[in-house]
Amino acid sequence: MSKKKLVIGVDEAGYGPSMGPLTICATAWRVPVDLNASEMTSMLEPEFLAKPIKQNSSHVPIGDSKKIHRDTYAVEGLILGARFLSFAIDGKVPTEWDAQIAAFASEDWKRLSSIPWYATQPSEHSNVLDNIFPKQADYFHAAIKKTQSHGIQLAGIRMRVIDEIELNRQVDRTGNKSTLLSEASLGLVKQVILELGEKGEDIEVYCDKHGGRNRYQAILTYSFDEEWFDIEIESRGCSRYQSKWAEHAMQIQFKVDGDSIFPSAAASIIAKWTREELMNRLNGFWQSKVVDGLKPTAGYYVDAMRFAKQIDGAVKNLGLATDQWWRKK
Questions:
Q1: Residue 66 covered by a domain
Q2: What is the pLDDT of residues 98-112, one digit of tens each?
């Protein structure tokens, strides 16, 4: 049996908006030790493509979620990619997405499901997807066969879903959103290694840049029990570090367009799908509270300000404080 390593990709969705959750996902892949993670995307084509789906598509959409969340079946493309990743773990095509979020984000689900605008019914996009792509399980089996031919296996998925109240609390504690993102992302990486890493296994971690930060040595040391991290490179394009932690030789990099690497692209799909699903619920909740037609929002500042003005009466009727539904950063 050839020696393996664990490759972890991390990405987020919702870092910039003023409304809605910040979602951070990590996907962990066990691959041959000599496999170059940056080549995984091209290696797995055409079964996997970083492009939107159409009605006659036969690929699994895995890539930068901004490239997939487009055109007629934008949300359905995210769901198809997320479904495959869940299928790759247990061989079942999931239908209960609350259960999936709960499984991926167990640390946050109880708190999240107590918030009225996230505790509403799931969206109908899954039903649309089933009608348009009735043979999706066939595509999934072909995609699994392709990964297996290269000795690649999805070991697990873990996620943080940080709602508005929790985000505001963490920003007050850390002082800024960039530090919150770094701490939450690295905490997720640590969780993945402890839960999924095999004894002595080499670890590679691939992240996008965090809020323009170029230097991560101090926060890495803080996040991994004061373990020292050697600097390989620190630049505007890429920052990369080496260490040994918990009996694992570990390399971690933060790169502009980090979601171009397949494990991070997979994380991007899960993070974006989760945020889109929760934003659909948020919009539906407030639309049910406002008599006049309320156009949905993606949560970005200018349009979120418009949305906030329109729901102001409903917010007051519910007795909500601003920091329960509006992000400080």
A1: yes
A2: 888 889 999 899 999
